[in-house]
Amino acid sequence: MPRFFMNSIIHSPFCNASLLAGLLFLFMGFMIRKFPPRSMKAWYGYRTFSSTINEKTWHEANQYAAYLSRCMAYILIPFGLLMAFLFKTQTDAFLYLTICPVIFCALLMTGMTEWHLLQVFDEDGERKENKKDGVDIG
Fold it and tell me: What is the C-alpha to C-alpha distance for residues 128 and 132, in angstroms, rounded to an integer?
């Protein structure tokens, strides 16, 4: 009986990549917002070369990535539910239609966060608003 139950859950269209990743994006977005990583050595957080330049870039990248993660979750969860209602079983088309949005949202979140860091910070990790003509005015 438990084996049949597990197979029915795993093969259900409600067990799809968009829905599960959307829930994970939502959870991580709220966790990083509520409990931001205290240092760059924390086991979780948004970690790229530009986000680990200094503590200011680390904090900004994590706050922005957490916001985007929640936004992406609000797209992925309804999309995953829609796919679960449209398909009765998991077919190849179903798998592609639920995995592609997850990959797209993950790449979009990374690209937008990196773009945000480039707009806010210079190559040394200093805020661009604090500089004028190469002289620190802050």
Answer: 8
Distances (CA, A) of 99 to 16, 79, 95, 111: 8, 11, 6, 19
Residue 138 pLDDT greater than 50, yes or no: no
**Domain locations in the chain?**
11-125
The model's pLDDT over 102-120, given as tens digits with 9 standing for 90+, comes to 999 999 999 999 999 999 9
Inter-CA distances, 126 with 3, 45, 64, 66, 135, Å: 56, 20, 17, 21, 12
Residue 111 has what pLDDT?
A: 97
Residue 32 falls in which region: left (phi positive, over 0), alpha (psi -120 to 50) or beta: alpha
- Identify the band that residue 133 occupies on the pLDDT scale cut at 50, 70 and 90: low
CA dist., res. 132 & res. 79, Å (int): 45
The answer to whether the beta carbons of residues 72 and 105 sit under 8 Å apart is yes
AA letter at 99: I
